[in-house]
Amino acid sequence: MTPEQIILVQSSFERLGPGLPAMATRFYQELFARDPALRSLFTTPLAEQEVKFAVKLTEIVQAIPHLDELLSHTRALGARHVGYGVRAADYQTLGNALLAALAAVLGDSFDTPTREAWVLAYNLVAETMLEGAAAVRPVGS
Amino acid sequence: MLAGVAMALLRWPIVGRRSELEVFERTLTSDGYAGLVIHGRPGVGKTRLADECRNQAAASGHPTERVVGSRTTALLPLGAVAALLADGLGRSGLDGQDHAPALFEQTRRALHQRHCGRRLVIVADDVSLLDDVSLALLGYLAVQGTIFLIATVRTGEPVPDLLTDLWRDGRLERVDLHDLSRAHLDTLLHLALGGPIEAGAGQEFWEVTRGNPLYVHELVLGALELGALVERSGVWHLEDRLTATSRLLDLVEQRIGGLSAEARSMVELLALCEPLEVGYLETAAPPGVLESLERTGLITIAIADGQVRLAHPLHARVVRAAMPKLRVRAILLAQADRLEAANPLPGPAALRIALWRLDAGGRPDPAILVRGAHLARYADDFRVVRRLIEAVPGEQLDSTGTLLLGEALYELGVSDAAERVLALGRGLPSSEHVALRLAVTRAKNAQWGLCQPEAALAINAAARAVVTSGPLVEELAADEASVWTFSGRPDQALAVLERLGGSDRRTRVVRAIAGVIALATGGRTAEAVDLARAGYADHIALGAELAIAHPAMHVVNEVFALTEAGRLAEAEQLARAGAETVASQRVPIAQIFFAANLGRVAILQGRVSTARRYYAEAAGLAEANHFVGPRRVALSGLALAHAMLGELDAATRALEERASMPAFGFLAPQQQLADAWTAIASKRPTEAAERFRAAAVQAASTGHLTAESWLLHDLMRTSGQDVSARLRDLAGVCDSPLVSVRARHAVAARARNARELAAVAGDFEALGAMLLAAEAASSAAEAFTRDGDRRAATVALRRSTELAASCEGAMTPGLFHAAAAVPLSGREREIAMLAAAGLASKDIAERLYLSVRTVNNHLQHAYTKLGVTSRAGLAQALGSA
Question: What are residue B877's phi and psi, to 5 degrees?
């Protein structure tokens, strides 16, 4: 990512402000619309899940400028998601759902540069979550 | 950060390959699969992926082994798999085939025993190069379930029949690897370097590697080793072009090594001179050569214009680097002759002809060099301009040549050399036009490069002796105005501009560059916005010209004018769009000013952390591109943002860095916000107030009216001093709502008018100035409390807290009492803050010229009002803990 893109991600996220819970709700709607099977991976009540998601996303967005800090979040998060049965292909779906939710809540201000910045940020997060996942998953045992 | 790099070099990240790793995981754990084949082009990361699979298998307890095919082992039966064989086996002779079934079965049993029945995971790299017996053995073991085979196959190499058969039987899974996408390349660089990369550098990696992971790896290592890739303020910059490592040279050589002599010379020709027309190449090469190159993917032919290029940009660089000098010279000279014969001068081919002749080590005709330099100038390629003109022998350099070279040196940040060349040009015979442009460029270099505005004015004045025709005199005057504007005298600039006509388009462009900032800072923001737009339109109509700023500077100016007009959201949007455009076009000065203006807008919006990031970016870019003056402006902004965040050490560091540089008058009063706010952050309110006052006086005497309003308003915010009279005067002469709301704020604060303060908070909020809105709402709460209207006070306080929440951690005195929500007097607040910062009463008394008893009295009142009993409690209540 470029420094400008990091700023774009953080400032558009800040712009969400009180719209964050709405974005979280929208995220799960978009996610399950894309892949209804994913619903079964979630055992916690959805409302609670949305709050967790919003909190984690806030932490991650704040950590983006500091890679070490970001990695400590994403690797642990990825490792935890192995237990939920999340796979690499699902990360693509998750990313698309996130972009759609951001676009819906941010409206016109989610312009092309902002979107591209989020694509890169998500890619960085997803790759390092998957790395964290790979580190804990036993293979062929 | 450096530790991060060391890590990256130890363990290069694997990116964009997780789905493939999951395929491996799935096949290894499913019944029925004997292995996995990884297909892909050279450098795509087959071996890396295979090894990563192997690591994962090892991590979960599988024994693993690795065999590598090579041209040598291919000649030797079982040569590649010797390590697998049970002791004493396979030594019976080179014709192991005769005893194969027995040997295979013995090996299977030996392996089974050696690994206690666990399946051995074997990577067979470049499996096409294994000898048939080794292959057959691996196939046998895989089918028996003794081993799990991970084979890599290069695209284009024959796939061994054995693998094809296994695959057809569904015993083998296949993955096809491709080059990385732009996003994955970006993530790879981010992880490998441990931080963000500047936009231009990321683009360069993409253009050269096209996402080929091996090329990325080699180029990153090479650039780090040579110091071309450097980290500054947490961001990676590319200081030099990417160069290939010797390993990379070998790899590309392998790719083109097997070509016929004719095909190879075609590749060499393209590497030096691409793009070339397909029509010409068809006559230059024997029939069939181009087709075969296209079929093997080494060249591409654009359908639109019939231009032929090498398919991979890196191939061109590597081939060029590997060619003998004499051959390079022969090809370049022949092509230059051909092009010159077909394209008489002057024409667009001059640039290529000039560069080819130079690259060939020849002495091209100066006319061609100058013509080529003009063409390079139109493309803003100042490096090439410099190179071409520096090749002109000194005695043949005319005034136009010195103008081109001087401008290029200035743009490249080599200010001393630029001054020498431009001064030299002044002594050469020249037209009035060229004399004017020499003077203008030299003045610009004196002002921006050497930070000597007086010298710039002297150069401008001296030029009047040789520049006498009407429009040129006007342009010279417009340029004088520009010197005044950018050396901190907008009042003088406006005085000069008012005497100007403005019939000539070029003059109008220069006038716009000087006038927009002068008008905006003089409070005539509507005129300023219009002038910026007209200037941009004129500039585009004018086209590319020598000795004039980049058109993007009009957009920078419009951003400034919109900001002064209080149209913050519009300013932000325009600046972001502009920043993106100039980043892709690599116009550093505009990049710096867009970032600095984004920082400025963010300060006014109260988005203080965002401001800090933008200013840091601007300062880094200015440093990288040797722009001293703009760097000062950016460092001032950076210190300001740090100070408003309460980051005293960082603010002080930024100011110290700034102090090491020569003075720069542009926006001088505004630069002093940094010093005053740093004094606030270090709990020296008296000093801060003095600094605000002094800067405001300077602003008033130089025509910086909007800046004066900003400074006085900040003085009021931080000290409670009454500045309402002057702010009202300023509101009377400035057309900016930001200036008038500041004035109303001061009037309301003076009158302690609660309702009006609440209304002011609303007006600031409508402008997008959230921090100012939060502070005004906080004062409103204070006033409501004093008036006994508790309900209104609670509402205002809640509003203030909500607004402050969007201010990204700003720590301003106005917010401190928002947190406290108790009407401390100015003196009480000042003393409470000092006490909270850990000063003893005696020290506070000394600092404020008070008695210790008075200090303690004030402190006691503050304790009571805040409901605390200790200094620690005080700090917490004031929000500064």
Answer: -65, -30
The structural domain count of chain A equals 1
Q: Which of A4, A127, A140 sits opposite B579 (nearest CB)?
A: A4
Going by DSSP bridges, is the β-strand pair B299-301/B307-310 parallel, antiparallel, or unpaired?
antiparallel
CA–CA distance, A121 with B576 (Å, rounded to integer): 18
Mutate to test the interface with A, among B18, B53, B147 (most CBs of A within 10 A): B18
Q: How far apart are CA B424 and CA B550, in angstroms?
A: 25
A108 in reach of chain B (CB within 8 A) = no
**Is B801 in CB contact (< 8 Å) with chain A?**
no
> Residue A32 belongs to what domain range?
3-135
pLDDT digits (tens, 9 = 90+) for B628-679: 889 999 999 999 999 999 999 999 999 999 999 888 889 999 999 999 999 9
- pTM over 0.80? The answer is no
Select the residue of B14, B195, B595 nearest A67 (Cβ to Cβ): B195
Q: Has the ipTM of the complex gone over 0.90?
A: yes
Asked if residues A27 and A53 have their Cβ atoms less than 8 Å apart, the reply is: yes
Cα of A120 to nearest chain B Cα, Å: 6
For the cut 50, the answer to whether the pLDDT of residue B709 exceeds it is: yes
- Chain B segment 733-792 residues within 8 A of A by beta carbon are none
Distances (CA, A) of B474 to B121, B466, B514: 81, 13, 13
Res A119 pLDDT > 90: yes
Q: Judge whether A11 lies within some domain.
A: yes
- Phi/psi at B4 (nearest 5 deg)? -60, -40
Would you call A12 an interface residue with chain B, using a CB distance cutoff of 8 Å? no
Q: Left, alpha or beta for B68 (phi > 0: left; psi -120 to 50: alpha)?
A: beta
**A9 within a domain of the structure (yes/no):** yes
Measured CA distances, A64 to A112, B13, B126 (Å): 20, 18, 39
How confident is the model over B765-769, as a mean pLDDT? Answer: 96
**Measured between CB atoms, does A2 come within 8 Å of chain B?**
yes
When comparing pLDDT for A137 and A42, which is higher? Answer: A42
Domains of chain B: 18-176 (3.40.50.300), 182-243 (no CATH), 247-323 (1.10.10.10), 824-881 (1.10.10.10)
Predicted confidence (pLDDT) at residue B380 exceeds the cutoff of 90: no
3-state secondary structure B828-873: HHHHHHHHHCCCCHHHHHHHHCCCHHHHHHHHHHHHHHHCCCCHHH
Cβ pair B610:A10 closer than 8 A: yes
**How far does B799 lie from chain A, in Å, by closest CA?**
14
B211 contacts on A by Cβ (under 8 Å): none
Would the pLDDT of B441 be above 90? yes
Residue B323 half-sphere exposure toward CB, CA atoms < 13 A: 26
pLDDT attached to residue B7: 47
Residue of B nearest to A119 (CA): B183
Q: Does B190 touch chain A (CB under 8 A)?
A: yes
Residue of chain B minimizing CA distance to A140: B29
**pLDDT range class, residue B361, cuts 50, 70, 90:** confident
Residues A4, B62: C-beta atoms closer than 8 Å: no
CB distance B61–A141 less than 8 Å?
A: yes
Q: What is the pLDDT of residues B811-826, one digit of tens each?
A: 888 885 544 455 677 7
CATH of the domain at A76: 1.10.490.10
Give per-residue pLDDT as tens, B447-489: 988 889 999 999 999 999 988 888 889 889 999 999 999 999 9
- Whether A128 is covered by a domain: the verdict is yes
What's the pLDDT tens digit per position in B568-591? 999 999 998 888 777 766 678 888
| Residue A140 domain-assigned (yes or no) | no
Q: Does A91 touch chain B (CB under 8 A)?
A: yes
Q: Residue A123 and residue B186: Cβ atoms within 8 Å? A: yes
Q: Say if residue B353's pLDDT is above 90.
A: no
